[in-house]
Design brief:
The chain has helices at 3-24, 53-56, 63-75, 93-101, 143-162; strands spanning 31-36, 44-50, 83-89, 106-111, 136-138. It is of the alpha/beta class.
Length: 165
């Protein structure tokens, strides 16, 4: 296996673990990690997050935003110039905008989001030449696992709602 693919799999494994933690809390299972490659060839974890919208009653508490905020604090900068964001689901417009604004050079995501994806599915915000920054996109890393987590979560949610009390 190519060493960069092995590294992507390693960090996506961290994001998948976070997605499972979100599901355990009743949150939509999306996990994200920000990895700084400035001084460590294998990367150093500087931010992590999973969806917390329900718990925090915060519409902006997506996994990516939580992880980006933590990374900014860890690096004492809003510019995440040497970092890669690994996230289990293709980012939405809000999160894709945050990726551009943080100047992230690279985004790695698991499964596409045909209903809200703003990186490749519905929009291409992270690679739009009209914006002041573009990120290199690597889609499909551990996509089947990420999609299964989401599918199982929503199936269980539908099943629990259809049970009589």
């Amino acid at each position: 296996m190519d060493s960069s693919l092995a590294l992507d799999n390693r960090w996506m494994d961290e994001a998948l673990d976070l997605a499972r933690q979100a599901a355990a809390l009743g949150e939509i299972p999306v996990g994200a990690v920000v990895v700084d490659f400035a001084q460590h060839p294998d990367g150093q974890l500087v931010g992590r997050g999973f969806n917390l919208r329900q718990r925090d009653a915060d519409p902006s508490a997506h996994a990516e935003i939580v992880a980006l905020r933590q990374a900014g604090r860890a690096l004492n900068s809003w510019r995440l110039l040497h970092c890669t964001l690994y996230v289990t689901l293709e980012p939405c417009p809000m999160c894709a905008g945050a990726i551009v604004n943080a100047r992230l050079p690279r985004l790695v995501f698991g499964c596409p989001d045909p209903k809200a994806g703003a990186v490749q599915s519905l929009f291409q915000l992270c690679s739009d030449p009209r914006l002041n920054h573009r990120a290199v996109i690597t889609p499909g890393i551990r996509a089947a696992e990420a999609a299964t987590l989401l599918r199982d979560f929503f199936a269980a949610r539908r099943a629990s709602r259809s049970r009589p009390d």
